[in-house]
Backbone:
């Protein structure tokens, strides 16, 4: 077999090593345009888990790499005169140049041919090669040469960064957030060998301009950074090596393989430096390629297996990197946070590290986080314990005169089980059981304001006395048997009305028994859906009166809170999104105009609803479609409703148009809640694939939402919140009939949690930093 590898970085060299080990007789050649000892940048960083992989696949290079590493466990966050150190992270740093030399030496030992100062721009010279590995880096000329095939998407991020070095010794992965007269600067720094550390400086484009960095050379830029961070550098110089300011390109390629050619490392995909994964991804690509080559019957099959098997892991890492980089791009959102909450946000920004995870690794730090959260709650007028506070999930919250005992919310979820809009015994059991289960706040499903406002024939309504009586029965039960508050969500289906029950065909039009629909514009949801009638002024007035009438009925029922549904492509949402609002009158065009009618409806409801009771609005913070609502738009939408008197913004996303392309994942909508809360300065509730109490605490403690709504977890476990309270040792209300069960689960949870934590601690291998510290510890005197 003949293999040509274009690019002599970590990806190309490690691929050569593993493929040569696998096929000793193969002719493998690496072509690198630079000299053997050329390298740009300073250090690279790996986690202990990545090093475990290296040890498994090539012990000789692993041993040499680890002999050169600097090890550390702590992450140190410097912010506004404070330092918070969080241990148990297990990181290792190594000189990039040293890493390349080690991999070059190992490749030569195995018989790989290395050709430096050899520029390759045409793969035709390798016509006799069985495999061509394209590992030519972030500016891959072969990816660009076949751009129509590989279809790369390049997202050039807004922040500016420069990669420098220093002689400053560091004993932790260090983040420094520095306020300047021009704006915030961030340093990401870590030691990679004795007397050497990597420093990546980052700032937003506006601060970059104000600081006069545009047009400065490398040395002048280093001098400016040394002025800003001189208090920490303590006289140590900053070193340069192609340390130009640039914007980070997030690269995703639709395809990785063409014929017998395959993209590897940064040539196919990049991940932001804030999670330190570029070199890790590159070398793990090489591992995945070698695994595929070992098992497949042909090169073509191997490359297919490589791409199919590796893509998910790469995209997961990229998603984490995306979330992380957005946090750094918008660090100004959090600049007025309490320093310990800010540090917690740094640690949990990419979702891989959570509240429970940090409790195991850095319990003192999490206790500080809990105390800071409790102090904030106390400042709002609550008499809560700040010395031994409960977890954030179980801290109270007040909206106007409504007080919720904890931050766990049963999300509004359509049950499609009403009869002509009438809630049944199913609804009584559904809402009642979840209230008894301990949730602080219960939302009804979208309750429709008229018969023709329904999504499906099974949707609940609030347009007649019989429905009002049924809802009153539910509200009375919740109030009599739990401490939960209950919120009525009112909505109108608009163009998504007259459709089948969810389990019969979600959003599909009814084949019989349908009704006429209305919307901002006459655009059907599906091509075969009913074409809605564009609302005129008379229709607007009629629907507004329906909302007001339902509001008055809701107050008569005794609901504690009211929510207006302006999301998911339903009637009011269809006015807000430019994808569904094509009007040319005063209700179309600009966002201000598109908001005009939803705000009219809200204002009318707010006037009819008691001033002492809160109101919320559910919005789609993005349409997940080109030309639709964006996160920035959502901030303006939230501000407009806040000015109209809204107390809480329920931040959801999407479901506006059929060709939307949502990016799913754990807590996938939380970043939009974060943006709305911390830019619009309004209380938010987040929702969307939130499944654990750990996630709830993580979101709240990091200041990304004020309430957290969970849907599916509550469907299968009405006592979700009660179980969580037992786990975290937070006492909550329970009806007397159920007290023996509560007492038992609280007793058992003390032991169960201790057993779980002990098991996690025992199962977690010691980090290399811990092992190194033990190995160098002086023996006790005999």
Residues:
């Amino acid at each position: 077999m003949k293999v040509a590898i274009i690019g002599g970085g970590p990806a190309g060299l490690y691929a050569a090593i593993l493929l040569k080990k696998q096929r000793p007789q193969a002719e493998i050649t690496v072509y690198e345009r630079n000299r053997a000892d050329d390298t740009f940048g300073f250090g690279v960083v790996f986690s202990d888990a990545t090093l475990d992989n290296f040890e498994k696949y090539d012990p000789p290079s692993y041993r040499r790499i680890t002999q050169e590493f600097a090890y550390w466990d702590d992450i140190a966050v410097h912010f506004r005169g404070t330092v918070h150190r969080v241990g148990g992270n297990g990181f290792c740093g190594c000189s990039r140049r040293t890493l390349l030399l080690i991999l070059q030496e190992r490749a030569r030992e195995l018989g790989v041919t290395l050709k430096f100062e050899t520029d390759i721009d045409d793969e035709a010279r390798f016509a006799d090669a069985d495999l061509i590995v394209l590992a030519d880096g972030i500016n891959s000329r072969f990816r660009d040469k076949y751009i129509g095939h590989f279809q790369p998407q390049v997202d050039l991020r807004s922040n500016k960064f420069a990669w420098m070095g220093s002689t400053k010794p560091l004993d932790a992965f260090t983040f420094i957030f520095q306020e300047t007269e021009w704006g915030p600067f961030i340093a990401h720094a870590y030691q990679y060998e004795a007397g050497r550390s990597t420093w990546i400086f980052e700032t937003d484009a506006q601060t970059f301009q104000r600081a006069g960095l545009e047009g400065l050379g490398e040395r002048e830029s280093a001098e400016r950074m040394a002025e800003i961070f001189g208090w920490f550098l303590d006289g140590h110089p900053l070193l340069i090596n192609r340390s130009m300011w640039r914007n980070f390109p997030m690269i995703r390629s639709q395809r990785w393989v063409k014929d017998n050619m395959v993209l590897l490392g940064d040539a196919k995909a990049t991940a932001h430096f804030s999670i330190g994964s570029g070199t890790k991804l590159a070398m793990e690509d090489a591992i995945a390629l070698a695994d595929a080559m070992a098992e497949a019957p042909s090169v073509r099959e191997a490359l297919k297996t490589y791409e199919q098997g590796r893509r998910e892991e790469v995209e997961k890492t990229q998603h984490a990197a995306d979330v992380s980089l957005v946090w750094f791009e918008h660090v100004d959102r959090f600049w007025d946070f309490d320093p310990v909450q800010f540090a917690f946000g740094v640690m949990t920004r990419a979702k891989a590290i959570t509240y429970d995870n940090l409790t195991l690794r850095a319990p003192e730090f999490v206790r500080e986080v809990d105390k800071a959260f409790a102090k904030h709650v106390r400042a709002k007028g609550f008499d809560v314990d700040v010395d031994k506070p409960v977890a954030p999930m179980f801290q109270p919250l007040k909206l106007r005169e409504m007080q919720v005992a904890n931050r766990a919310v049963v999300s509004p979820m359509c049950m499609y089980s009403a009869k002509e809009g009438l809630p049944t015994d199913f609804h009584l059991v559904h809402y009642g059981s979840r209230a008894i289960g301990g949730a602080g706040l219960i939302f009804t499903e979208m309750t429709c304001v008229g018969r023709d406002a329904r999504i499906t024939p099974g949707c609940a309504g609030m347009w007649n006395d019989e429905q009002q009586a049924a809802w009153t029965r539910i509200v009375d039960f919740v109030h009599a048997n739990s401490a939960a508050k209950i919120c009525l969500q009112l909505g109108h289906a608009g163009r998504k009305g007259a459709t089948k029950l969810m389990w019969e065909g979600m959003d599909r039009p009814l084949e019989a028994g349908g009704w006429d629909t209305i919307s901002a514009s006459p655009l059907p949801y599906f091509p075969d859906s009913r074409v809605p009638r564009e609302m005129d002024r008379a229709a607007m007035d009629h629907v507004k009166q329906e909302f007001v009438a339902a509001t008055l009925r809701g107050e008569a029922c005794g609901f504690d809170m009211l929510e207006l549904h302006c999301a998911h492509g339903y009637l009011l949402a269809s006015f807000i999104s430019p994808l569904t609002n094509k009007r040319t009158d005063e209700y179309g065009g600009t966002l201000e105009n598109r908001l005009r009618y939803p705000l009219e409806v809200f204002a009318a409801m707010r006037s009819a609803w008691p001033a002492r009771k809160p109101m919320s609005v559910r919005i789609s913070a993005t349409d997940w479609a080109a030309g639709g609502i964006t996160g920035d738009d959502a901030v303006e939408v939230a501000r407009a409703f806040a000015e109209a008197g809204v107390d809480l913004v329920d931040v959801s996303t999407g479901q506006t148009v059929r060709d939307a392309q949502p990016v799913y994942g754990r807590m996938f909508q939380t970043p939009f809640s974060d943006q709305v809360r911390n830019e619009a300065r309004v209380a938010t509730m987040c929702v969307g694939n939130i499944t654990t109490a750990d996630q709830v605490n993580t979101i709240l403690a990091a200041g990304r939402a004020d309430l957290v709504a969970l849907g599916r977890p509550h469907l299968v476990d009405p006592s979700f919140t009660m179980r969580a309270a037992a786990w975290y040792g937070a006492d909550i209300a329970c009806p007397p009939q159920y007290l023996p069960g509560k007492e038992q689960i609280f007793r058992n949870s003390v032991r169960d949690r201790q057993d779980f934590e002990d098991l996690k601690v025992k199962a977690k291998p010691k980090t290399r930093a811990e092992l190194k510290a033990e190995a160098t510890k002086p023996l006790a005197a005999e």
Summary: The chain has a mean pLDDT of 94.
